[in-house]
Each structure stands twice: as structure tokens, then as C-alpha cells.
Helicase-like protein
Amino acid sequence: MATLTESEIEKLFSGAPQYFARSEGHYTGAPHPSVAFPWDEELQIRDLTDHTQIEDKAWSCVTAWPHITRDIQGDRSAAKKASEEKRRAHFYPRCRERPNMLSMGGLEKGSVGYQAALELSVADALQEAQWGFETLGMRTPAIIDQRQRMLTSKDGLRHMDETLILEQLIKNGRRYSEQHLRERRVSSELYNELFLQILHPPTKVLDHRDPYSLSVQISALVKVLATPNVWIDFSHVEWRIRLGQLLWSAEDEVEDGGSTMTTESAADIQEERYWLLIQILLACELLIRLDAITEGEELGLESIRPSEILRFEKDANSSVKWSLHLARAWLENIEVVKTESTEPSHDEKPSGWLATLTKRMSLSRDSHHNHRRTPVYAIKGRYVQRQVDGLTHFAKQLRWPDVEYATKIRDNCRSVTEGAPINTPLASPASRAGSHRSSYFGTPSRSDTNLKPVSRRRKISAALHPSGWLSKSYVSGLMLPGEGLCHFLMATLLENDQDAMTKLGPMANLCGGFVYSGKSFWSTSCIIGRVLAAGKGSAECMGWISSDITPEGLGDGWINVEVEETAEDAHHIDKKARLWAKHAVERESSVLGDADPSSVLPADFIIPFENIYRDKAPPVLAIELQSLSLFAAVDSAGTTPTEEYGITPLSDVSRPPVLQTYTATATFAVTQVDTGEEKEYTYSLVKDINFVTAHPCVPSQHVKFLKSPSSPTIQHVELSGNGVAGGKTASIVGHPLHKYFTYTALHLSELLEKRDFPLEALLGNYSSTHRPSLTPASNNAAKVLVVDCITGFKPLPQEHEIPLSPVISRTDSQVSRSFSMSSVNISRPVVDIGEANTPSTMESASKKMHSETRRRQFGSDMEILARAFCAEKGWNALISRRRRGCLACAIREAGALGWKVIIRVD
């Protein structure tokens, strides 16, 4: 038997995804997981993904990864055209959100993609869970001392009053809109502006060749922004969400008596806003220079030395790079508008928090004794209509109950669309919530985190209010990459629907769910949502799922769900995460298994199938979801219901409303169609597991499968290219699987009967009689369990047994070699699943993928049951759908993830 050549291996696995985990360079954190088709050049194959596209320009801020947004609304308004204009070369910091939000929306509703699945264990949200947030909500002495040192040092920040900061932000906005900054701006002009108004000049020459170069200015700005204990660190998810709260939360007058803030805490917020605006200004200055130097490199006007790049990557820590993301969001979406105000009276109090702050800090000594006409500055979103349209789109996708929601949203958002004056208090219900709690996410204190494993998902509760800071964050477009957009979308939808606010109340659990108007809505952070998403008629959009299934006995209201992290997931986080084992990820998913590439034999492969039944066919089942039930959870003592308190208190109450916590169960009726026997199964949705969409693949155009009476080893080489011994081609879609990957297939009905079996026992019962060539004598357990959710759930054609023998077409030399793939007896005919072996295969696959992004209405109660079973057992599972991807590629992806369960659906 001859070994396969390199060319033949590439043809055999054409269209098969390969799974990688590679580091992006120094100082970039965990490796980057990716899927690629290294042996294919066709764009229709290389562009296949396991996740949906972003479908609205208003949602583009959800990720820092470069991407193309598919705006399905087709609204070509002037504002949208302006936002879509192709700009000059931009600088992209090598620092992005984890998990990748593009990959968080898998093609299967309620699932994620390969990249997000690996990155959940190194997620940004884990950082605050591990280190705590005692310092986020309050200014510590270290922060106060460092900021004073920054202002008194001659090697740092100059004193700036409010007018200078805002005028410079206006100037940066105009400068950013210029199409060719490098041609219009010289380094010396930027140098003088920076070091005469914002920073003190360097104390030593940094570049003897050009002391005024952009590199010198970039280095000085990075040094200031990288100073610890001065700036807000937006690498923490909490602060990405709190950004809008800090800018737009209310400064209720203490004399009113209705505020929960003290005089001291109100002044602290004013000071934090001042420092935030300085941080935004410095980041904008840095980003504009980085854009300019990047454009110069692109146009051949400037060459960046490798040493400068290395110094930047070393000095620009994650906090600096996230400040750059903030600067991009500000310059893209925000404009500062200046108008004249009336002259204040002599006894009038200073207006505006910046005025109060500068007086307190003595940065502007005469600012409140000068009664000249002073300008008023307002923050306005550039693309308000785009954001409002995106909110309407979100509501439509989720099938919001009120048919008049579109008009309501547009009308109610008008108050938010007006520019928010910086010099006047901004209306919002939320006070400085973080000053007395450790985290926006309700993260427990450090002593509490030692009692239970850290969850990879945070719980988020917030107070809603019409036109509150959550709405302002979304409508302005000032949002940072990460999960925040999903929370802002739902919060804004609710804040602008008066009927929903009345029925649901002001406290929202944005990582749980709620029942409203006969439907249920769930965050994808909630296991109930991820399970119900598998049902027919469910809808998913931007981190939220809607379903016609509602919990029994519950009316309109919010729901908090108690779940447990699986022991394996809780242990393998951060440095112990699977992603760091990048060599294992690639080795355990290799198309060649553990074989030496120079000695790969044809007999080492088979075409796997999920439905191998030699004794008898499984029963035909009818499955129906009977009920979804919620029960009040109890604490560790087993007596008191668990309560989740919101951490954004209302200003008119001393204690926010209680969010009741529940545990969930799902009950199914399973009927054998032939006998009429019915059984009832109930599963507890208690484990916080994940579902991953198995990556799509395209059948190789270079392989034909032949029907033959047997499956011999190589006995003949056919030079004519007409096939082997007169065999007839069969329309089989799938890639080969190396014998390294052992698996066992169980029909769902058999799995139900083995409910009490641990996964290891199900894998250990692997029978070598099914596929003798794939299991060495020393290997008694399969690596993967394939749950067959295809066979017996609808009428099937007559059964046959067809041994397979593939042929690789060598079109370059017009030679066809026949070789055997280990014989597989299958209990149903090999059916044609489409144009799999025609020249138009890849075009068809591309069209299918476009339809997938619209979330074709797959799903059934049977699929809900399969997910509920996994949620009770604590099994992370891949969802592999026939026609989208073959079983062999799904098994290899399970090897990359280190998972052991595949749910194979029709």
C-alpha cells in the first residue's frame, strides 16, 4: 500500500477547516484562536465562518476586530453615507476584546463560534473577578497622590482649564475628519501644540535625528497615559460599561434632599469626569499621531523603525491601548458643540461640574470671578438616527410584542438625541453606585471568591429610567468593544417603552431574562436562553434571545437564574485555560491525526457517520416540550431564597428592589411512534455550559466516492481517470477522518435510557466491533460522543449497506489512484445533499452561508431536549448540522476545544 503524497493530502482535505491557536506577538496576552483553509484559494471557501455577521452599522462598535458590517436595512441616509466613507489608513492597536464578540453569535442560535469558545476562559471579565474592585468605585490615596504628582511635575501634564480641554477636543474632531492628515499637518506644528498647551516638553532629546518627530510626541503621550493610578483602565469590562454612567449620570443638588449622594461623593464624580475628559483628550492626541504616522507609512512618506515599534509595544500597556479604543469611539461618534450663553448674575452659583471642579482644584483662579459671557459646550452624537434605526432593527429581530414600538422608540429617543450640555447637570436616575459596592457586576469581595469557583460570566443589574445614562450611551454611539453593547441595546429598548417599564419595573437583570406580553426574553449569558434558542420560532439578536415558551405560573417580570460552573471549566481559566496549550489545540485537531506526514496511508481514514446501527434501527420518536418551570433557589443553608440586588440604585429609594433568583427545569414528553409508548423526562438546567456551532466545510472537488461490493486495499491504479473497476459514484458529502480520532455514536433514545451514566462510561463502552481499524487494542475509550439527533425523527427511505471507496482525481497528471477507506456499514442510504459534487458547489455553499446569517428557522423540541440533557450533565457540546458541515470536521474541532460531545442534527 503506497503512502499519500503531499498533493493528494491537500486535495483530500480541500474545503476542510483547520484549527489553530497562535500568538500575535509580545505583550498581546493569550494566543489567538483561528480557523483557516490553508489548502484552498477560493474566497467562497476561505470566507466560511461559524458565526453571523454584524447586521447593522449601529452595532459595529461591539468589536475591535476589523470587520465588514452587512447592513440589511439598506438605509442610505446622508448620515450613514458619511459614516461609511472610506477613511485614510488607521492605526489598529494589538489589543482587542476577549472573547471576540464577532464569534459570540454562532450560526446556531444560542451558540458561539470556535474562537469565542476558547477565549471564554481568558475573558476580560475574569480579571475583575480575580483581583476585585475595591478601588474602582472610589478614589484611593494612591490615586489622589499620583494625580497631584502628575500636575506638579515638570515632566508630565500641564494645568488645563475646561475651555482649553473642550476647545482642543473640538479641534481634534475637525482634524480627524481630514482625509489626508499627513499632507496637511507637519510634525513641528503638532509638536508645538502638544508641548505648549498640554504636556511639558521632554527633559532630554529622544531623537537626535529629528527632535520634533511624531515618534517623539507619541513616546511622550504614551509615557503619560501609561502612568499608573491616574487614568481609568478600560481593559476592565466594568469601566467600559461605566463610561456612560460617568459622563451622563445625574449630579442631583444636595439641597434637594432627594439624592442618595453626599456632597463629597458628588464632588468626587465631578473630579472623575474631569480626569476622564483629559484622558480622552490625551488618547485622541495620541491616536491622531498614530494615524498620521500609519498613513505616512502607507503612502511611502515615512518609514517606521523596528526599534520604535518595539518600544511602543513595550511601553503602551493594555490600559493605553484601551484608551486608544476610547479615542477612536469618541472621534468617530461624538462631536463637541460650542454655543454662547447669557451672562450670569453676580449671585449665581458657578454652572457646570467643570467650573466647580476647577475652582476646587485651583486650576482656574479667576474663572468664577469673571462675569463675561461664557460659552456652553454640549456633547452630541454624530449618528443619532443610525443608532435609533439600529434599536428599531434590534426590536424587530427579537419580535418585540408591541407592533407600535418603532414609532415609540423614535419619539421617546428624541430627548436623548439632543446634545447633552457639559456645563449643566444631566438628567439620569443613577447615582454613584460604585462608591459603596465593589463592582457593577456584583462581584463578591475577595473573601467570598475563595469560597466558590470564579464564574466566567458576570451578573449585571441596573436601574432603568427614561432617557437614562444607558440610553444616552447607546444613542450617542460612545461605546467600547465588548459585551456592553448587548446590555445597552436591551436597556435602551426598555427605557423607551413605557408599557414595558410599567410591567417589568425599574430594576433590570441584564444577564438573566424576563417575561413580557406572553413572550420570554433571555440574555445569551443565561443557560435557559441558550437551551430555548434551539426551539422552532426562537429568535436571536445581539446577545438576546426571544421565545414563545414562558415559565409556568410566572407573569411579567425579571428572572435571575442560578447556575453552576462545571468543575472542568471553573478550573481551566486564565493561565490554565485550554487556549494556552496552543500546540495541543493544533495537534489534537490535525487532519492527519498523530501520523507522520511522510507516511500517511489511505487505510488510515474512513468517512464517519453518526447512524451506525447493526442490530436494529432505533425507534421513531416524537418529542414535545411540556413545560419550563422555575423554583425559588435557596442558599447554602437551604432555607433562605437567594436575592440579587441591583447595584445601580434609584435616587428616590434607599434600597433597590429585589431580583428573585430561581433554578430551572424543563419537562418533555417522548413518544415512540410505532408503539405509542410515552415517557416523561425532566432535566434541571443547572450547569453553565456552552454550545458551539461546528464550523462549516465544503466537500472536496477532487474526491469521488465509489459504490463497490467491497472495500479492498489498493489493488489497482486506473490511468484513464474513469474510476475503479467500473464503480459508480455516490453523492457522499464529507471529509475523511484519521484513525487517531475515535468516537462512539449513540442515538438520542439510547442516551435518554442511559441518563445516569457518566460521560466516561459512555465513552468507555465504545465497541471495537463497529470499526475495528480505528481502535487499537490499547485504546478502550472513544475520544468523542456523537449524539444522533437525525435518525428516526422523521420518515426514512429504505435502508442499505454501502461500503465506500474514495478516489482522488489527479487532474495535474491525469492520473487517478484508487485506495480504500476502512469499510463503514451504514444503515441508511447515502443521499445526495445538494450540488456537492458539481462545479457550482462553492457558489452554493456561499449562498447557504448568507442564508445562515439570517438564522434560518432550524430547531425543534427534540433539539431543546438534547441541549437540556447536556445542561443537566454539564457537557459542553458542539452542534453539528448536516449539510452545513461534515461529522469528521466536527470531531476534529472537538479535539481542538478539548470537548467530548457532539450533537448531530438534521
Summary: The longest strand covers residues 658-672. The CA atoms of residues 121 and 577 lie 6 Å apart. The mean pLDDT is 76.
